[in-house]
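Late entry, evening session. Most of the bench is empty. Finally got around to the prediction I had been postponing all week. Sequence below, unchanged from the version circulated by S.P.
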Amino acid sequence: MALHDDDTGRGASLEAVLAELKRGKAVPCYLLYGDEEFRLRDAVEKITTSLIPDARDRELNLFVTDGEHEDVGSLCESLITPPLLPGRKVLVVRETRLFQSKTLLAPLIAQIRERLEPDPARAAADFMQFLALTELQLDDLREGGWRKIDDDVWQKIVPDDGGEGRESWLPRAVDLCVSRGLVPVKEKADETDRLERVLAGGMPEGNHLILTAETVDRRKRLFKAVSTVGRILTFAKIKGEARQQQVVMEMSAGLLGDRGKRLSSGAWAALGQKTGFSLRESLGAIEKLITYSAEKAVIEAADVEAVIGRTKEDTVFDLTGALTGRNLTAALRASRDLLDQGVPPLRIMAMITREVRFLLHAKLLIASGRLKGFSANMDYGHFQKSVYPSLKQGAGEKEEQVDLVSQHPYVVYQFLKNADRFTRSELAGYLEMLVRIDLALKSTGQEPRLLLERFLLAVCRTASQKAPGTRRASSGG
């Protein structure tokens, strides 16, 4: 059976690799990469278990290390050394740095910025790799030394990054690495060449290498060496709620089936509201539901509500609902809850911006004359039958309206109703404020909580100060 391409058109599928292993065919090396961490880790576990089925053998013949501690020379020595016990020997290097290059600096910077708050350890490791790739010295950047890098120098170092906001993230990354006492480790080209030779034919039969990475430079010789002798699997983030739900259902089928259980349609809907069909959160929730439901064969929506409780998704709905309802107390409480739960301020900003943008789209739709018969007081059933079909048919005529019209009919209905609480000039003004806040979050040291609360005050106070239909947007924060 030939290995077929996965969703991205690159490399082998996990199903084909596992089928190969089941037939007893194993290759020297497996490279798994992509930004869907949960599926990637699940695939590593399944491949490892297929290579060494016995848990006792894995204790002695399975070796795992992280990319930030990898040493190519030691790795090669281990690959050419027979296992302690008869059978297969597997070496796993998680988040290897061997496939990174200067062409990946821009996405690497994005990772550093995103992880500074929620995952400082990984942010620090990423920044050390950034230093290794750019040949910048940590000692030269500490104590304000990073300020010596002007825009022209930055463009030469990182051509694909404009450098916007680096005065915000760069000193934080430097301080983080200094405080942890990290020391850069440079890759040695001759050792990488040696690894290529080992993979090409220097490993004893039964020895295997599994490498994982978030991003790779496919042009590197090592990547080509792996593709020649091994298997490459990619795990890109799943886009679209329908596709996410499908993957969650597929991956949970075994969990549920082994215990003789299934989720009702209402339970699936409730699970989606709680987890957004995030793989990690959804499968963790299903394991809890299996235990909670005891002898019940069918898990219902009420079980989901009882077991999972409030999540970040619930708080997001609280915030957006309070914003459209112009309820200051509820909006402030929800934004503080999200920040306390560790949600990055930029992600909260993106949620709010989407809400305001859709409200403005709805306002434009109402003003366009395309919604014949629409009233903010009409019920959803009437809207779905008499208004939405013609609205959907005309989607694409005006580019700025496509985003909203492409949503579920009920979502469109809610935004059209809520838009009645705002004027067009208000919403346009709020979008301008959000752009300024986004810039401030990325380029200044202003307190994110304060910036967010100022925006919520501007939106909700306007409602209490002026009557509907006469409100105008505030020009300041």
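Two things to note before I forget:
The radius of gyration is 27 Å.
Residues 1-10, 396-402, 464-477 have pLDDT under 50 and may be disordered.
Will write this up properly tomorrow.
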